[in-house]
Amino acid sequence: MRKIIAFxxxxxxxxxFFVLADGGLFPPPDYYMYETDQxxxxxxENNLETLILSATFRGDxxxxxWVVPTPTKPEVSRSxxxxxxxxxxLTRVEYSYPVPMGLDNALSVGRQEDKxxxxxxxxxxxxxxxxxxxxxxxxxxxxxxxNGYQFPxxxxxxxxxxxxxxxxxxxxxxxxxxxxxxxxxxxxEGHMVPLQLKFSxxxxxxxxxxxxxxxxxxxxxxxxxxxKLYPDGSYVYPDGNYEIYPYPSPYYPQQVGVLIxxxxxxxxxxxxxxxxxxxxxxxxxxxxxxxxxxxGNSWISPSKDKYFLTKLTRWMSYSEMTSDLYLRNAxxxxxxxxxxxxxxxxxxxxxxWFYAAMAVGVMLILGAGGGFIILGRNKINNxxxxxxxxx
Length: 391
Hints:
- It contains seven helices and 20 strands.
- It is an alpha+beta fold.
- The protein folds into two domains: about 325 residues, no CATH class; about 55 residues.
- It comes from Candidatus Portnoybacteria bacterium RBG_13_41_18.
- Keywords: Membrane, Signal, Transmembrane, Transmembrane helix.
- This is DUF2330 domain-containing protein.
- InterPro entries: DUF2330 (IPR019283).
């Protein structure tokens, strides 16, 4: 309730607010970010990670920027929103902890822009996407600022480790020209087309460190009379006046709900500080049927008969996002809120036999009923013949 009240009290300065999935979200001048929720699905096999991200926000869709770092060049494509819905249904338990919630033909550009190398550009739905690398953080920060991402200059150090390890950056923006009124209304409701990034890696990684940019000072608006918002809830005006609002505060830090579904061939996964809400084996066919693309193809093509699905959740403050999340094998494969696969298969077989028995029973009843009708008719016919013979 305090959060809602605070928001409306600050509405004059905080007109839109944004919710992002994985990576870092950067609005242009005159806009603030308010809070973040991150949702992802990871499928990892043979050193190939498929990362599906779902981003939602409220505000002006024309002013959305999103950057996702990956250790190698990603293949970016459209994903399906039903994947998250299907996984939520698959892993749902009767009593659980609150769950954090909240492509087209590519054109390889290969051009150099002042120590920033444009690897690829493409359009997916209403997204403009650029895959790039950089030689230093200043050059990358300059490129992001030039292209409307407004990356804070004092947060350039966050990019250094990515650049030194030769990571790629996928910069994503909303194409205002591609937004129809219906799509605009859809975006205002916080519903966006999920994106899929597929890349090679020897470890399962969830890029989170770049989200810590949100912990730095929020950018001031272009209006010289507007205040500068700090994460502790204070305002500093150009004349030096200082005001404190009740929310957020140092005692109630802004928090981010992180929700990760991860499929692996053999092991349950874990992360320090995360809660395992679900852990269990899932059959190949079940995974393939979770979601389909626009052509009716499965969202993934698993090669093994079964995979281990782990659902991890945690609430985090921006100050805790000091590193990317590298998932690791758990010490055991004990199930959490899941039935043994053999038990599910046995239950499925019982259901099959039950329905088969029901079908046979119905057929026998119908057959018996038909037999009685025929016998009845024969008796009537015989009786009629006897009566006719007497006459």
